[in-house]
Design a protein that fits this description.
Blueprint (H helix, E strand, L loop, with lengths): L1 H10 L9 H16 L2 H8 L4 H10 L5
Helix pairs in contact: 2-3, 3-4
């Protein structure tokens, strides 16, 4: 449903890009890390199985740890 509505908003010129659910997840993860500077908090926030996964995830988004 999100993809449908975002595409509709994009075509109407209301948003600049056709964002995906993953884009929102990435933005939330980066925002949480910038707010707390706690990778363990972000791990729990994202429901990752290990902090290593979270570190890799944040690095792939160009976040300095």
């Amino acid at each position: 449903m999100i993809a449908y509505h975002i595409k509709k908003l994009f075509k109407a010129g209301k948003v600049k890009a056709p964002y995906s659910c993953h884009d929102f997840r990435h933005a939330a993860a980066v925002r949480e890390y910038q707010k707390t500077k706690d990778v363990y908090h972000v791990k729990e926030f994202l429901f990752h199985s290990s902090v290593t996964v979270t570190e890799r995830y944040l690095r792939s988004l160009n976040v300095e740890l």
